[in-house]
Amino acid sequence: MNHTESLTRYVGHFIDELVASGVEDIVISPGSRSTPLAMTAAEHTGMNHWIQLDERSAAFFALGMAKQQKKPVALVCTSGTAAANYYPAIVEAYYSRVPLVILTADRPHELRNVGAPQAIDQIHMYSHFVKWFQEVALPESSERMLRYIRSIAARACHTASDGNQGPVHLNFPFREPLVPDFTLENVWGARTNGFHTHITGERHIDSQNLAELKQKIQSRKKGLIVCGPQWDEELPEQVTQLAKVLQLPVLADPLSQIRAGEHEKDHVIESYDAILKSPKLREKMKPDFIIRFGAMPVSKPYMLMLKEYQDISHFVVEDFEGHREPTTSPTEFIYADGKAFCKALAQESSDLFFDKEWLNFWQESNRIAKATLLEDRGKEPLTEGHVFSELMELLPEQGTIYVGNSMPVRDLDTFMLTSPKSIRVLANRGVNGIDGLASSALGAAAHGEEITLILGDLSFFHDLNGLLVAKQYGIRLRIIVINNQGGGIFSFLPQAQHPDHFEALFGTPLDIDFEKVVSMYGGAFSRVESWSHLRNELLETREGLSVIEVITRRDENANWHRSKWRAVEEAIGQEIEDL
């Protein structure tokens, strides 16, 4: 059997097993050495292939798609720096637990470390930021090697999806010639229902450990349930039911999926970030214990409270494993399925009684904070925070908000109030970077989902290359760009007190006309100048890419936010005295 036939069957069996293992989408950045993988994936009728020329954008596109689809997406690139450009998205995928199957083509062993072009060391190049790495064998077409390559594909998909999801990396050395021959019979081999099968049970907290937990919290009267960023759309129902049974408040991060949906929200406290910005309020609202689900919340004031009061008993529920506790607080980690844990604790809680006035105070403070935050909405000039309030009212059922980092996610935290609508909220909070956000949102929107991305002008600038895929495939995505001429979040940080260097080093104004950029990629563009204009644009339904630019001023925005936080503290003042 000649080289081309061995190559074709070997790669054909691999791609076919990816499909059998549930991978339906593959994102390809064109190159020469990756020809066998790219052409074979494009040939397979069970695989959707997406072309994105820029590898950095391609990897974030796959990440967003995997988040929205909740299953692994594959990536293909050629050798050399193409593979290195995947790095930012892989790091984000690792820390935000997103399943990716990364396929990098490589020079064969005899062309490594000898000065051959486009050859770098790709062995373990992503270090510990992948769950599993394997350099696969050179292509052969013996029955044993075809079983081998199927097992590699099946294992990669399972590893990416099992437990805490994440990226895996397979490195493929290929010798020339690289072009497969699809005239061969039975390129895909014998179709399977999955080369490997896996049976995995839920992790439950046993009765003894549950009794020990109850003993630790039953003598304490002021508890909090906290839910940080997480994807499981079934968890909100169980968390809010547990809160109802225990009569405890739920501090719900905007990425917890708890603030929107049909589940009960009587115990949900969505304005806790604004409330806890006050040191005085943090002191009065200090809990005796916290039970947390999901990652650490976005809220910096919440984190400050944990750092300030190390005597709070802290319980973190993780479905599988992990150590997501950056405050150095003494913490008890409970490794059990979150939904099962909620049900078990709720069923055994008849003898747990907590301070009802504590719950009442949180609920009343939340009501006051919401009313204060929404005062004068629509009557004042365009403000960054109230863009989220408007969007939440106008977003349709089953819509998704993809939010950028820095100020946008913090404004979402403050101004995303509870809603009965089924609205999903996504973000790249693994490492909180501002790169790849447009590509991530486009990946989430690629299969026709209703996605609105909100990000700052610097984040938008960082990923302009990613807009090409919207033009190529006619992907419908609405982007709201908050343009405050640079890094707005730095206006809230100590760097702002050093005007001699602030603008050059931190403010970094762009002075770019985004309308021309959007036009280049075939998108619709509007620059809104009033609340009515913004509402009209949000109600407009457009095909393809549409960008709404909201112009604000960094200094005015910082002052406006601070005035809102002061107003919240003052409005709750009387409640503090009565506590």
Automatic annotation (TrEMBL):
Taking every annotated instance into account, which residue ranges of this chain make up the domain Thiamine pyrophosphate enzyme TPP-binding? 439-550
- The Enzyme Commission number assigned here is 2.2.1.9
Look up keyword Magnesium and say if it applies.
Answer: yes
User: What are the protein's GO molecular function terms?
Assistant: 2-succinyl-5-enolpyruvyl-6-hydroxy-3-cyclohexene-1-carboxylic-acid synthase activity; magnesium ion binding; manganese ion binding; thiamine pyrophosphate binding
Q: Where are the transmembrane segments?
A: none
Q: How is the cofactor bound?
A: Binds 1 thiamine pyrophosphate per subunit.
In this chain the Thiamine pyrophosphate enzyme N-terminal TPP-binding domain maps to 13-125
What residue stretches are annotated with the Menaquinone biosynthesis protein MenD middle domain?
Answer: 219-403
Name the keywords, alphabetized: Magnesium, Manganese, Menaquinone biosynthesis, Metal-binding, Thiamine pyrophosphate, Transferase
Q: Which SUPFAM superfamilies match?
A: DHS-like NAD/FAD-binding domain, Thiamin diphosphate-binding fold (THDP-binding)
The record ties this protein, via Pfam families, to: TPP_enzyme_C (PF02775), TPP_enzyme_M_2 (PF16582), TPP_enzyme_N (PF02776)
**Pathway recorded for this protein:** Quinol/quinone metabolism; 1,4-dihydroxy-2-naphthoate biosynthesis; 1,4-dihydroxy-2-naphthoate from chorismate: step 2/7; Quinol/quinone metabolism; menaquinone biosynthesis
An example Gene Ontology biological process: menaquinone biosynthetic process
User: What does it catalyze?
Assistant: isochorismate + 2-oxoglutarate + H(+) = 5-enolpyruvoyl-6-hydroxy-2-succinyl-cyclohex-3-ene-1-carboxylate + CO2
* Needed cofactors: thiamine diphosphate; Mg(2+); Mn(2+)
- Sorted alphabetically, which Gene3D superfamilies does this protein's record hold? 3.40.50.970, TPP-binding domain (3.40.50.1220)
What job does the chain carry out?
A: Catalyzes the thiamine diphosphate-dependent decarboxylation of 2-oxoglutarate and the subsequent addition of the resulting succinic semialdehyde-thiamine pyrophosphate anion to isochorismate to yield 2-succinyl-5-enolpyruvyl-6-hydroxy-3-cyclohexene-1-carboxylate (SEPHCHC).
Q: How does it assemble?
A: Homodimer.
NCBIfam families found in the cross-reference section: menD
- Protein family per UniProt: Belongs to the TPP enzyme family. MenD subfamily.
What is the designated name of this protein? 2-succinyl-5-enolpyruvyl-6-hydroxy-3-cyclohexene-1-carboxylate synthase
Instruction: Say which species the protein is native to.
Output: Pontibacillus marinus BH030004 = DSM 16465
